[in-house]
Design a protein that fits this description.
single chain; alpha/beta; 6-stranded mixed beta sheet; elongated; 3 domains; about 35% helix; Rossmann fold; 12 helices
């Protein structure tokens, strides 16, 4: 309990004003004593009529899980004794995995219900630790502060909500069907399906001369698109991926895109695996097929921890290459700063490219592009624009080196990486690069 600014102002100004008559005429000191007594009586009445801490109860119901990138709600029920209407200010102690929220102001009668937004900043476990309640007496002279422990735990998971919806949009594409059914389109596919009688209009290159000689008629080969390829998602969990981009760590943007790609690949009949590394390999899941494998990938991706270590691409990608016995499509989700720090990364990807098809995915910071393009208004802005342009040139130089080495590169903004990654995967299947 402490005086409010109104109560402090009343004490500070009321005392000298009440003392003024006594300074003019000594017999008027009674007025000063009466004013002092009246002020103290107001404070006493404010204390007596105020809601007691024991009369205040706060109930909080937290969601069991939240998805990174989506907001949840903490359901609150606040009860104050009797039917007296009182204004309450609520401030919640949230751990660093949740965004801080401003003070929640409620006008409470007997029972009041409200909600508090919960916005996850990263995956893992989050807690709503406690709530601080502050209210005043009916005259606004005294304020009361109370801390109520809550200890509500919430699991913060990768955002797989949009995965199914986005995947359905892709399944209307003719390219996507090429991995799950026999194709009747000429020239599509490379796996032998059947022989059929050759007719006018069919591709002459599909003629099977040996079979035609045995059957004494022209026969053509029918092909179907290949399936059951191995796709490995290689996720960098180093310190650069823990930096926020559009309010969410880069690692979570990468995981969301990787899960969408995994779902589409599993639906088309391919096998999907997962590996993660920072200064050393952290996780490994053998490529498996079937949509039922998606839950396994989701659990492993949710358990990937944020690391403060510098990424060792040599060790991480060498271990991955050692584990893979057959040619596979390897999707490397990472980020880099400049050509100097990316030198070992480029060398490791070049070695990996000799045995596998590599798709390099990096997250582009559009804020850096905006700084580089903005017209400077002073010397400081000019300096920032020049630094941003230098970083972008370094970035393009690294990507150009990778493309010349045969590595397919995708440098996309965080909010576009999922869709563009799936489109690039479909293009790989259509062109049968594996």
């Amino acid at each position: 309990m402490r005086p409010t600014p109104r109560g402090a102002l009343l004490l500070a100004l009321g005392f000298p004003l009440a003392l003024l008559p006594a300074l003019v005429a000594a017999p008027l000191w009674v007025l000063w004593a009466a004013a002092l007594a009246g002020t103290l009586a107001l404070f006493a009445a404010d204390w007596l009529l105020a809601v007691r801490p024991s009369e205040v109860t706060l109930e909080a119901v937290a969601p069991g899980a939240l998805f990174v990138g989506d907001a949840g709600l903490l359901q609150l029920t606040l009860r104050a004794g009797g039917a007296r209407a009182t204004s309450f200010d609520l401030l919640f102690d949230l751990d660093e995995a949740l965004e801080r929220q401003p003070v929640l102001r409620l006008s409470v009668g007997a029972v009041t219900r409200a909600t508090l937004p919960l916005i996850p900043r990263r995956r893992g476990e989050a807690s709503v630790l406690s709530a601080w309640l502050r209210w005043t007496g009916p005259f606004g002279l005294l304020s009361f502060t109370e801390q109520r422990p809550l200890d509500r735990s919430i699991r913060l998971l990768p955002n797989v909500g949009p995965v199914h919806g986005a995947a359905l949009r892709f399944f209307g594409d003719r390219q996507l069907g090429s991995g799950i059914k026999v194709e009747r389109y000429l020239g599509d596919g490379s796996e032998f399906e059947a022989l059929r009688e050759h007719r006018a209009g069919l591709d002459a290159r599909s003629l099977d001369w040996k079979a035609s000689a045995r059957h004494h008629k022209l026969l053509s080969r029918e092909y179907r698109a290949e399936r059951n390829h191995a796709l490995v998602l290689a996720v960098d969990t180093g310190y650069l991926m823990a930096e926020p981009l559009a309010g969410i760590p880069k690692l979570d943007h990468g995981i969301n895109g990787a899960l969408l790609l995994a779902y589409v690949a599993l639906k088309t009949g391919d096998r999907v695996g997962l590996t993660a590394f920072d200064d050393r390999p952290r996780a490994w899941l053998e490529p498996r097929g079937g949509v039922a494998s998606f839950a396994r990938l989701q659990r492993e991706a949710a358990a990937l921890a944020y690391s403060h270590a510098e990424t060792n691409f040599t060790l991480g990608l060498l271990e991955l290459s050692r584990r893979l016995r057959r040619r596979a499509l390897i999707v490397v989700l990472t980020d880099f700063l400049d050509s100097v720090t990316a030198e070992l990364m480029v060398e490791s990807l070049q070695r990996l490219r000799r045995s596998h098809l590599v798709l390099f995915v990096s997250l582009r910071d559009i804020a850096l592009d905006e700084v580089a393009r903005a017209a400077p208004s002073d010397l400081r802005d000019l300096n920032r624009a020049m630094v941003a342009q230098d970083l972008l040139r370094e970035r393009e130089a690294v990507l150009l080196r990778l493309r010349r080495a045969g590595v397919d590169c995708l440098d996309a903004p965080a909010r576009q990486v999922s869709t563009r990654l799936v489109n690039r995967y479909l293009d790989v299947k259509r062109r049968e690069l594996l």
